[in-house]
Amino acid sequence: MNRVQEFRKERCLTQDRLANEVGISRKYLSNVERQLAVPSVELAFRISNALAVDIDKVFFDIPKMAVSEYPKPMKYIDLFCGIGGFRYASERAFKNLGIKGECVFSSDIDKYAQKAYEANFGEKPAGDITKVDEKEIAGFDILFGGFPCQAFSICGLMRGFEDKTRGTLFFDIARILKEKQPQAFVLENVKNLASHDGGRTLQTILETLRDELGYHVDYHLLNALDFGLPQKRERIIIVGSKNPFKMDWSFDVKTKKNLYDILEKNVEKKYYASPEIVAKRKAMHTPKTTPSIWHENKSGNVSSYPYSCALRAGASYNYLLVNGERRLTPREMLRLQGFPDDFKIVVSDCQTRKQAGNAIPIDMVSMVMERFIPMAF
Ligand SMILES: C[S@@+](CC[C@H](N)C(=O)[O-])C[C@H]1O[C@@H](n2cnc3c(N)ncnc32)[C@H](O)[C@@H]1O
Question: What is the CA radius of gyration of the chain?
C-alpha cells in the first residue's frame, strides 16, 4: 500500500508532471497509485524525493521488503549461462534493489562459453545439463535460463511434464524447478517461441509451469531497442513466482545508447570488407543517417538503420556492415547486448561473435528483473 496519490494531490502536482520528474510514464505512475505496480526501491526513492516526503511515509512496506523479506543472500542458478548475460542482468537488478546475490550453480555445454564465463566470473560452469542430477544442485531462490527452443512431441494420452517435455531442454528446467522449488524464475527465448509448432511449444511450457509446477506465470515479447540498446532484438521473457503478481510490461526508458556509444574508434583493417563488396553495397544503397548499420537480407536487399538488427550466433558477421564498410568488432557486438567493457574477451573473434549473438540484452532483462523481483518475493 502506498500514498503516492495522496501526497501528489496535496502538492497540486499532475500525474504527468510527477511522472516526468521521476522519469517514468504517466501510465506506470497511475498503476503505482492504483496499487497495481510495485516500484523498485530506487524508483520509490525517486518518487519520494520528488514529493519531498520521507520514503517511509509514502511506501509503507518497501523498506521492509528490501531489508527483511528478500533471502540473504539471494541465491540463484544460471542455466544455459553462455557468457553470463543473466548474471550481469541479475547483479545489476539486485544492486538497484539493495539485494546481495550469490550464484550457486551455472551450466553451459559449450567449452568456449565455459572458458569465457570462468575468465569473467571465476567459476567454471558445469557442462551438459541433461547429465546433471537435480538433487546435487544446491538450494536456491531464483532460476535464470535462456534455453534453446525445441518442439515437444505431445502424444494424446501423455500426462504430466515428464511425458510431455522429456527430450527437450525445457524438461531440464522443469525437473530442477520441481526438485528445488525456488520462489521464482526468469526465462528468455526467441520471438519465434510463441509461434513455434503452431503455438503448442509455448502452451506446453506455460501449462507445465502453471499446472504441473504450481507457479504464477506471465510472459511478454520485448524489444531491446525499447530498453536503451541500439539493437532491434525481440525476445520473449517468461517470469514466474510462487506468489501471485501483476506484472506491468510497459517500460519508459529515457536514457538510450546510440551507435556513437557502441562503435570503436580505431578498428583493425581485418574487419573491413573488400573494396568490391563495399562498392557493390554503396551502389545499391544510400543511408539516411550516419553512422548506420547496413543489413543485407536473404534476398540480397540492403537497408540501413541507426541501430543494429538482431545479432545472431551464426551469421551476423557478414550480413551486418557498419556504414556499409566493415564488420562489427567482437567488443561492439558485446556492447550491443549491454556487456560492460571490462568483460574479458578470452576466446577467438569467431567464438566471441557466436557468444554475443547468443547472449541476452542485459539492460532489458535487468529492468524486467528489477520490476519483477519485488513482486515475486
Ligand atoms: C541462447 S544461449 C544462452 C546465452 C546466455 N543467456 C547468455 O547471455 O550468454 C543457449 C546456451 O545453451 C547452451 N546449451 C545448449 N545445450 C545445452 C545443454 N545440454 N546443457 C547446457 N547448456 C546447453 C548453449 O551452449 C548456449 O550457450
Answer: 22
Q: Are residues 181 and 320 in the same domain?
A: no
Q: How many domains does the chain have?
A: 3
pLDDT computed for residue 316 by the predictor: 63
For residue 317, the model assigns a pLDDT of 62
What residues line ligand 1, using a CB cutoff of 6 Å? 80-83, 85-86, 107-110, 113, 128-130, 146, 148, 169, 358-360
Rounded Cα gap, residues 306 and 258, in angstroms: 8
Output the CA 80–ligand 1 centroid distance in Å: 4
- Per 3-state DSSP, the chain is made up of helix, strand and coil in percentages (nearest 5) of 45, 15, 40
- Ligand 1 atom at shortest distance from the alpha carbon of 82: 9
Q: Give the per-residue pLDDT at 65.
A: 44
The phi, psi pair for 102, rounded to 5°, reads: -145, 120
Closest Cα to atom 12 of ligand 1: 80
- Point out the ligand 1 atom lying closest to the alpha carbon of residue 83: 9
Given a cut of 50, the residues of the chain with pLDDT beneath it are 62-68
Domain at 75, CATH number: 3.40.50.150
Query: Which residues, at least 6 apart from 189, have a Cβ–Cβ distance to it below 8 Å?
Result: 146, 147, 149, 235, 236, 238
Catalytic residue among 81, 103, 149, 309: 149
Mark whether 12 is an active-site residue.
no
- Type of residue numbered 40: S
Atom of ligand 1 nearest to the CA of 86: 8
Q: Domain check: are 181 and 288 in the same one?
A: no
Task: Say if residues 309 and 232 touch (Cβ distance below 8 Å).
Answer: yes
Identify the bridge partners of residue 79 per DSSP, sorted by sequence position: 107, 145
Do 26 and 122 lie in a common domain? no
Q: What is the model's pLDDT at position 113?
A: 98
Boundaries of domain holding 59: 4-63
Give the pLDDT of residue 67.
Answer: 45
In the reported structure, the alpha carbon of residue 170 is separated from the centroid of ligand 1 by a whole-number distance in angstroms of 12
